[in-house]
Write a structure and sequence with these properties.
With 378 residues, this protein is of the alpha/beta class. The protein contains eleven helices and 14 strands. The chain has an eight-stranded parallel β-barrel, surrounded by five helices. Flavin mononucleotide binds next to strand 4 and helix 10. Pfam families: Oxidored_FMN. It comes from Paraburkholderia sejongensis. This is Alkene reductase.
């Protein structure tokens, strides 16, 4: 039996297997960032995962990288998530909310005319930032990032309070925990990286100062829920959103030690460059494993057989799958049955309706409605 199918105790939360669904933005919350019945269906279809991690969910009105992403800011957004968490729990699943502040990766077009916020107002690389929106004809397309401005110290403190409030909201919405998104070039990652953070207050300069925003977010979230319910996602070597760090090994050994001491539920390390054919997984394990003694979740272009080896050797405790979960709602059962995985079609990854979202049948089931392949892409 694959070691992926062995149960795991995640700081008191019993997981039936070591398989997590990686957070994936699907951009299907068209009304003020409120989750929908379609989203409930999507997550419930995948509830046999040991742990489901939600799509990145905005914690602030200043956060908007992908139009139509959901939020956990307003009361109506909290209410809208409840049927989603209920649907997952009805299928005996577990769902963490990924808490997201996009920082400089945004556009005035998505922020009602406001300027995106960032650590230091670095704006020489806007074309490299992944900001996306949906056209009236339904196509989801990359749009231009607009210049950000450096946050004042008070605004950083305000953002910490927004994470705390979002954590309260996540619990009220019925989530089993939260994953703080400090990866992929978004606000927390921007503070960690020496190129995007050139501040001279207590949130910039030394490595300890650059990590302070994350440390204070963890502390604030820890005031409203046990840290046994809090994961953190990092992507130490990611080139995504051009968040270059001059010394990622040093930065992330420090961050991993800091998170280890904090006693979070898990550290989720995403090999974001693996997608573009430059895997950093061995280097990531080498940097993080000695520094972080708790639960380590790995992700990024990992096949089920490679995942099995990572668990068996102890390099990982959990493995998250992203794209495999787009097309295989029953990924756990397919791995258990040694069934070939379906490939995701290039349709409906972001934005749109049920097509490319909830229309992938479990193995052996008759396909539902005929599949349209002409609609949304990316
Ligand atoms: C459609 C799509 C949306 C994604 N959205 C997010 C997201 O919201 N938050 C995040 O941390 N990563 C996001 N990612 C990255 C995935 O979590 C994962 O790191 C990536 O797909 C690599 O894993 P894989 O090789 O198993 O697909 C997204 C990936 C895809 C394909």
């Amino acid at each position: 039996m694959s070691s992926l199918l062995t149960p795991y105790d995640l700081s008191g939360l019993a997981l039936p297997n070591r398989i997590a669904m990686a957070p994936m933005t699907r951009a299907r919350a068209p009304h003020h960032g409120e989750a929908t019945a379609l989203m409930a269906q999507y997550y419930a279809q995948r509830a046999s995962a040991g742990l489901l991690i939600s799509e990145a969910t905005n914690v602030s009105p200043h956060s908007a990288a992908f139009e139509l992403a959901p939020g956990l800011v307003t009361d109506t957004q909290v209410q809208a998530w409840k049927p989603v968490t209920d649907a997952v729990h009805a299928k005996h699943g577990r769902l963490f909310a990924q808490l997201w502040h996009s920082g400089r990766v945004s556009s005035m077009a998505l922020l009602d005319g406001n300027q995106p916020l960032s650590p230091s107002g670095l704006n020489d690389d806007l074309e490299q930032l992944q900001v996306w929106g949906q056209l009236q004809n339904g196509y989801y397309t990359k749009i231009h990032a607009t210049p950000s401005r450096a946050m004042t110290t008070d605004e950083v403190i305000q953002a910490i309070a927004e994470y705390r409030r979002a954590a309260v909201n996540a619990l009220a919405a019925g989530f089993d925990g939260v994953e703080i998104h400090a990866a992929n070039g978004y606000l927390l990652h921007q503070f960690l990286s020496s190129t995007t953070n050139t501040r001279d207050d207590r949130f910039g300069g030394s490595l300890a100062n650059r990590a302070r925003f994350l440390a204070e977010v963890i502390k604030a979230v820890g005031e409203v829920m046990p840290l046994a319910k809090v994961g953190v996602r990092v992507s130490p070597y990611a080139g995504y959103n051009n968040v270059r760090d001059a010394d990622p090994d040093g930065t992330y050994a420090y961050v991993a030690r800091m998170l280890d001491e904090a006693g979070i539920a898990y550290l989720h390390a995403a090999d974001t460059n693996g997608w573009s054919g430059q895997p950093d997984l061995p280097r990531m394990i080498e940097t993080l494993r000695p520094a972080f003694k708790g639960t380590l979740m790995l992700n990024g272009s990992i096949t089920p057989s490679a995942a099995d080896r990572l668990i068996a050797t102890g390099d990982a405790d959990l493995v998250a799958f992203g794209r495999a979960y787009i097309a295989n709602p029953d990924l756990v059962e397919r791995i258990a049955g040694n069934v070939e995985l379906a490939a995701p079609r290039p349709v409906g990854w972001y934005g749109g309706d049920n097509v490319g979202y909830v229309d992938y049948p479990p193995h052996g089931a008759p396909a539902g409605e005929p599949v349209r392949t002409d609609a949304l892409s990316s």
